Structure formats: C-alpha cells, structure tokens
Description:
single chain; alpha+beta; Arc Repressor Mutant, subunit A; Alpha-Beta Plaits; 3 domains; 4-stranded antiparallel sheet; 8 strands; 23% strand; Transcrip_reg_TACO1-like_dom3; cytoplasm; DNA binding
Amino acid sequence: MGRKWNNIKEKKASKDANTSRIYAKFGREIYVAAKQGEPDPESNQALKVVLERAKTYSVPKTIIDRAIEKAKGGSEESYDELRYEGFGPNGSMVIVDALTNNVNRTASEVRAAFGKNGGNMGVSGSVAYMFDATAVIGLEGKTADEVLEILMEADIDVRDILEEGESVIVYAEPDQFHAMQDAFKQAGITDFTVAEVTMIAQNDITLPEDAQAQFEKMIDALDELEDVAQVYHNVDFDE
C-alpha cells in the first residue's frame, strides 16, 4: 500500500500555496459537512473528518471558522456531491469527487480535463470497484511496533502499518478512523502528518515516462477545477 502519503500531500500543498486554491476547496467541504448535520465536530462525524484532514494541510483557522459560521447562519447555498470515474493513458484509472452548485458545468469541465489529456470519462462503477475506501493516519516520533502496540491496546484492527520516511502510516477500515485518532490522542499524540478517509487502488500500475507526463498533466487539470474536492488514481510514480 505504499503510496508516499506525505510526499503527495506536500506536493499538492506546495502547488496550491500561492493561489490558496486548497483553502477555498476546504472551505467548501467544511461548509457542506457542517450543513449536513450539527456544525459541531463532536456530534458531526463527517465534519470531524474534514477538519482533521484540513489540519494536516495547515488550513487557517479563519477559513474553518468562516465556513462553519456560514453554515450556522442558515445560508441557502447548496452543493451536490458527485463522483466521476474515468481512464487515463495505458489503462490508468481515476476517481474524481466533486462538490458543485452547477452539475452541468462540473460534468463538462471534468470531461474536458480527461479528454484534453489523453483520458476519457467512464460510466458509474467502471473504476470504483478497483478501489477500497480506507482510513489513513500518519504520525511521527513513533516506530511501527510502538504504533501497533497502541492500537492493539485499544482493540483496533488495521489493514497495514508501514514506515514511510520519517512517518508511520496506518491503513484501516473507514469505520476505524475515529477510534484510531482517539487511541493516539489517549497516548499523547495529537499531530498527524495525514488523517483522512480516502480511496486506495487495489493494484497500482507504473507508467512509461511519456504516459506518466501526460497522466500528471491530466491529474493537475482535474485538481485545478474549482468544483473538484478529491482525485484518486492507481498510478504509482515518484513524487
């Protein structure tokens, strides 16, 4: 499962740093999650997940507070949660999750990002079955054995624990996300390098250099779309 989560996160954060695009996307996700339930992460698990992921990207508190206050204020702004599936060069697979207030616009933009970069949209279910929803938490300052001991004492089952660079990355079932966080916090660990529920490909592929360059261009085009919240894929390449 080694997907180099810290490198992926750092690359994305660096790319978006000058435009604050990532902050705007988190603002929208936080607003939607807060609108769907209570605007309190202790009673709204969806909001709690988004806030934990936002923390690993160093999203400013002002962005978070503004989105939650907007939800509390009864804003009538609404968004649809959509999932698109598609293919890139050489059999690569992509899942795109979006939040949009204009379904036609988003569908057109996502289709264009695929088509202009050697890919094409697929029908619903054409790709998702090759991915697994997974809780991923990364932390520093502990060994894999120490992390495993913490989780075993809390009676938490995990799929895998890997050391990636200076971090230990834990992979588990999505419903174990909050239990893992609570176990780590009980052990005095409150800062995470990654904390999210994501989609991980069952099998990664490696692309030849020319196809990889085209694939990265396609992923960047999708990431840059305002309505796109998350992009998942099955390509393994050096970040």
